[in-house]
Amino acid sequence: MRIAAFTRGLNCFSRIKTFPYPYGYTQCRALSDSKTIVSNEAVVPVLIVGAGPVGLVLSILLTKLGIKCSVLEKNKAFSTHPQAHFINNRSMEVFRKLDGLAEEIERSQPPVDLWRKFIYCTSLTGPVLGSVDHMQPQDFEKVVSPVSVAHFSQYKLNKLLLKQLEKLNFKICTSEGMEGLHSHFLQGREILMGHECVSVSATDQCINVIASFLKEGKCTERNIQCNILIGTDGAGSTVRKLVGIDLVGEKDLQKLVSVHFLSKDLGDYLLNERPGMLFFIFNTEAIGVLVAHDLKEGEFILQVPFYPPQQNLEDFSPEICEKLIFKLVGWELSDVDVIDIKPWVMHAEVAEKFLCCDNQIILAGDACHRFPPAGGFGMNTGIQDAHNLAWKIASVLQDIAPASILNTYETERKPIAEFNTALSVQNFRAAMEVPSALGLDPTIANSVHHLINRVAGSVLPSVLQKALLEGIFKVGRAQLSESLLNESNPLGSSRLTKLRHIFEEGKSLQLQFPAEDLGFRYLKGALVPDSNCEVGAPEAPTGHRRDFVPSANPGSRLPHMNVRVLSTVRNREIISTLDLVSGDKVEFLLIIAPVEESYHLARAALKVAEDFKVPTKVCVLWPAGTTNEVEFRSAAELAPWKNYIDVEEVKRSSDSLSWWRICKMTDMGAILVRPDDHIAWRSKSGVSGNPKLEMEMAFSAVLGIKPVNVEGTTQP
User: Cα–Cα distance between 33 and 151 in angstroms, integer?
Assistant: First the structure.
């Protein structure tokens, strides 16, 4: 038996200090009307606090876009607690841009047949009450996305992300091994382990951060200055607390204890007899949810309800957790190895705001939204926060856009976070339908607990309170006895029938939400809504799986279609339309058909982009089988510009929709795509007015850039 030590952050008191402006700075463009960006080796452009998946992904994206950044992580070592494990379609699409990360995840994850089901049972060896297969044939056909969802533990994902960062020349520095760092400032491309952010203050020029760390047993401080500070430091975000941003929503939905353990014997048994991702176990002795992170490796997380103060962590010692595992499994395993035991609280909250201090301090991931884990939206929403934010930060720091574009991060991402919060809560409520059908209404259990706290808490000794709580729960679990829960018992038969209806009607906990995963849309922000088109509120979450319908509406993610590159350099390779958007630089993409009016629009767009100094590429998308004139047509039509690419539709079958039909547009239309794959502007059937003025309007609206006059300077 062994327990891995839980690494805690350093406990130094937070305080606010103001530091003088660094000597020898170079003043650059204003970050806002009253702020300036400092170009100075003593000031790191971006400082990220928190080296979880969101912080690491953001650091990769920024670095690939040419932005220097450093990362602070309060823990001395990376956690091996599995935590999140479901990677949705959109996150996997983001990972495809990270030098083969998606492909490595697909190779490393367990086979899908080992995790496609949720199983409900009385024990892992006892009767199965029901099972739900969450994968459908279209999930593997890659029609709406070039990649599928994945089941891959968070700590394994972190390892792959760190490998990516090492390839980008990042250094992981411990507090004991700081000698290699400059004593006064960061160079960028560092991850400082064991460094806790304890103070944040803003000046007119930069953000001052104090990070504390232990060196030779003593609490030491490091002063760090940055242009932009990003808090990706999780649900208990220190950055969020230091800057005084509150969370709004439902607190304390449920308290649980998470038990990380290994058992090769259990993994082998389930692999052969009952493969699945989640096992919901209900019997007279115990209730819990088992997450099978990897059946082949025998790695599991057991989630069990936790009711403090009557219960405390001493009630979940390794020995007690072993016995609990045996009760839920149905036999005594000989090789259980309890690795870690952690309490946690489920919340459903979104930060009041995602930015502060004139956009110099930004929150992302769990730091600005905390969801129930139902549906796996937490980590995935955070990764998409990073994807939305990275190109905007790069645009500001590379003089492509003013700092006002950072406002669109909150404008776009906060509504998505609020929607996903509501959807996660709905899915969590759906999970409670199963125990309720079995006569175990969780709301009653919580009410009993609150009643004991309110009434008996001040009267009865803690020992008696604990005994009372356990006695009541034991009576409740008696509803699960074999003598009651069977088809011969009228009450048991009724409950089992109700349970079957829940599964058949899709009213239990769901894993996949394709319509929300790929179909989320920004209604306002760095985009141009269709003219004369009322944009209503997004459809309310249903809690049920809905199929994704591709859309080319402004704010939507660009539809996927396989296309063939018509270039000898690329050897006519087949790629996704999503691959046309660069992941290595801030670059917009204009998609047109090979028609004269569209070439005219493309020339206007390239001229406007040149005037605005906004990197832009044109994609000429040819219909399948009509590429005879490609070699010369685009070159002649778009001269003197060479930043274009010709591609041809690759249809799955002869009756497959064309690209423009998928987009519900004509081939006279055009689509302007942002660096994060979302549509910034479109013309459904051609531009009726002056194409140059139209493109000036589009780029101005998206980036917040003032129009350029004939002398090439921005108009006042």
Answer: 46
Which among 343, 344, 261, 257 has a CA at the least distance from the CA of 304? Answer: 257
State the Cα torsion 500-501-502-505 to the nearest 10°.
130
Contact partners, residue 222, CB within 8 Å, separation at least 6 = 192, 195, 210, 211, 212, 213
pLDDT of the residue at 84: 93
Q: Are strands 616-622 and 644-649 parallel, antiparallel or unpaired?
A: parallel
Backbone angles phi, psi at 485, to 5 degrees: -90, 75
Three-class DSSP labels, 20-79: CCCCCCEEEEECCCCCEEEECCCEEEEEEECCCHHHHHHHHHHHHCCCCEEEEECCCCCC
Query: Hey, what are 666's tokens?
Result: 């004509």
pLDDT of residue 545: 86
Instruction: Name the phi and psi angles at 544, rounded to 5.
Output: -110, 155
Return the pLDDT at 23: 30
Per residue in 419-435, pLDDT tens?
Answer: 999 999 999 999 999 99
What tokens appear for 336 in the block?
A: 């259980």
Residue with tokens 């590159």: 565
CB < 8 Å & 24+ apart, contacts of 130-133: 130/499, 130/500, 130/502, 130/503, 131/276, 131/503, 132/503, 132/508, 132/509
CA atoms within 13 A on the CB side of 396: 27
d(CA 378, CA 476): 32
Please give the DSSP secondary-structure letter assigned to residue 714: B
CA 201/CA 42 separation, integer angstroms: 16
Specify the pTM: 0.91
Which of 112, 102, 149, 278 lies closest to 545 in space, CA to CA? 149
Is-contact 186 206, C-beta < 8 A? no
| CB distance 114 to 599 below 8 Å | no
CA distance 419 to 540: 8
Residues near 533 by beta carbon (within 8 Å), at least 6 away in sequence:
none
Residues in the chain: 716
Strand (E) or helix (H) holding 265: helix 264-273
**CA 514, CA 501: separation in Å to the nearest integer?**
23
CB 42 within 8 A of CB 184: yes
Looking at the DSSP bridge assignments, the partners of residue 274 are none
Check residue 18 and give its pLDDT: 34
Q: What is the pLDDT of residue 9?
A: 35
Residues contacting 538, CB < 8 A, separation 6+: 415, 419, 521, 523
pLDDT value at residue 7? 31
Contact in structure between 91 and 21 (CB atoms under 8 Å): no
Q: How far is CA 357 from CA 201, 245, 362, 456, 526, in A?
A: 9, 11, 9, 47, 21
- Torsion region of 215: left, alpha or beta (phi above 0 gives left; psi -120 to 50 gives alpha): beta
Give residue 95's pLDDT: 98
Mean pLDDT, 10 residues at a time, over the chain (716 residues)?
Answer: 32 35 34 53 92 98 97 94 94 96 97 96 96 91 94 97 97 72 73 96 91 90 95 96 96 94 97 97 96 97 94 94 97 96 95 96 97 91 98 97 97 97 93 93 83 76 86 91 93 95 93 93 96 68 86 97 82 91 97 96 97 96 82 90 94 91 96 98 91 96 78 48
Cis amide prior to 594 (ω within 30 degrees): no
Report the distance separating Cα 56 and Cα 386, nearest Å: 9
Give the Cα separation of 519 and 556 in Å (integer): 7
pLDDT for the residue 569: 62
Share of the chain above pLDDT 90, in %: 76
